[in-house]
Design a protein that fits this description.
The chain has 359 residues and is of the alpha+beta class. The protein folds into 3 domains: 5-130, Rossmann fold (3-Layer(aba) Sandwich), CATH 3.40.50; 140-157 and 230-358, D-amino Acid Aminotransferase, Chain A, domain 1 (2-Layer Sandwich), CATH 3.30.470; 161-227, 2-Layer Sandwich (Dna Ligase, domain 1), CATH 3.30.1490.20. It contains 11 helices and 17 strands. Strands 12, 13, 14, 15, 16 and 17 form a 6-stranded antiparallel sheet that branches. Strands 3-2-1-7 form a 4-stranded mixed sheet. Strands 8-11-9-10 form a 4-stranded antiparallel sheet. A hairpin with a 5-residue loop joins β5 (86-90) and β6 (96-101). The longest helix has 16 residues, at 287-302.
Length: 359
């Protein structure tokens, strides 16, 4: 029996390039080679598609040397039209060879130019099936301001926020300063379209706001200033429904941070002390049910395709949705897989389900 060909697409042009590359290491190790033929395709930081090594160890997450896709001189040549699915590679010496027909693409890209609908639109133009969220869901969930508006319209609770651009600040700085300072301290300043806490700052003194805005504007032209809340940070995984039912929601996990201001990039990926990902986390009667209900509602509100990790603030009485990640961290120790493993799936089964759903 011919095994379906899966293109594992990773790296990319976003600031989360290395995290995507590390995710590739975990997925390469987990894909069932008896069922699927794997074609690893990396995207360099400059946007070149290269044929990568099928070597999970090459992309291990090492805090001393974050993995990346380096230009090796090859170029992956995508199908010329939607009438064929043949993938080819041009070697460094100029020779061209066929990699065979592609059955499905598994884009494990984080951030812009990958998780935002960009690559999904490209694949739809070529009529190639792909795993994960579709174009519209990806675009909505990538933009924090749009996500909050969609969730608010669907009666999903979110914390207060103000969205601002440099043009806004330049046109009427006093007005926008008043609007921003209408929020209670502390506030979190975030790029609208970035992940992995890149460009995020916690502001406890209004004198520090301008510097935090500069950091966020370096990542995106639109920035959110979001009300801080005293709350636990809980997360759960969501997968689409089966047989017409409701979306499936995993058990809850919790990010326990001690000795740091918040769960920043270093805490997420560089192995600094004082951070623990706990799953499952005990909740009182009714709390898990309510969290899962809100997570399913949020998932449906933004499109309900592929997969998502829904992040919450829980004050002890209220659940607020913080973000929806359509391609969450996917290494074996990341929260999304951890919560599904705690819910009864293996990491390998999770990878297989996402690929088979796309097929």
């Amino acid at each position: 029996m011919t095994r379906p060909a899966v293109v594992l697409l990773f790296g990319g042009r976003s600031s989360e390039h290395s995290i995507s590359s590390a995710t590739a290491g975990g997925v390469l190790r987990a894909i069932d080679r008896d069922r699927f033929r794997v074609i690893p395709v990396g995207i360099t930081r400059d946007g070149a598609f290269v044929l990568e090594d099928d070597d999970p160890a090459k992309f291990s997450l090492d805090p001393q040397r974050l993995p990346e896709v380096v230009d090796n001189g090859t170029r992956v040549l995508w199908p010329e039209s939607a009438t064929t699915r043949e993938l080819r590679v041009r070697r460094a010496d100029g020779s061209i060879e066929s990699l065979g027909d592609v059955d499905v693409v598994f884009p494990i890209l984080h951030g812009r130019f990958g998780e935002d609908g960009t690559i999904q639109g490209f694949l739809e133009l070529l009529d190639i099936p792909y795993a994960g969220a579709g174009l519209l869901m990806s675009a909505i969930a990538m933009d924090k301001h749009t996500t909050k508006n969609v969730l608010k319209a669907a009666d999903v609770p979110v914390v207060p926020w103000v969205t601002v651009t440099r043009a806004d600040l330049g046109a009427d700085p006093e007005l926008w300063q008043r609007r921003l300072r209408s929020l209670d301290l502390p506030v979190f300043v975030k790029p609208a379209r970035a992940g992995s806490s890149v460009g995020v700052s916690k502001v406890a003194d209004w004198n520090d706001l301008d510097a935090a805005l500069d950091i966020a504007f370096a990542e995106d032209a639109t920035v959110l200033v979001e009300q801080g809340v005293t709350a636990r940070e809980l997360e759960c995984g969501v997968l689409p429904a089966r047989d017409g039912g409701r979306p499936r929601v995993s058990l809850a996990g919790e990010i326990v941070v001690t000795g740091r201001e918040f769960y920043d990039f270093e805490a997420k990926y560089l192995g600094v002390p004082g951070v623990e990902l706990v799953c499952p986390v005990p909740l009182r009667d009714g709390e898990l049910t309510e969290m899962q209900r809100i997570a399913a509602r949020a998932f449906e509100a933004v499109g309900g395709q592929g997969l998502a990790r829904v992040d919450f603030f829980y004050t002890g009485t209220e659940f607020y949705v913080n973000e929806i990640n359509t391609m969450p961290g996917f290494t074996p120790i990341s929260m999304f897989p951890k919560c599904w493993i705690a819910s009864g799936m293996t990491y390998e089964e999770l990878v297989t389900e996402l690929i088979e759903a796309a097929l």
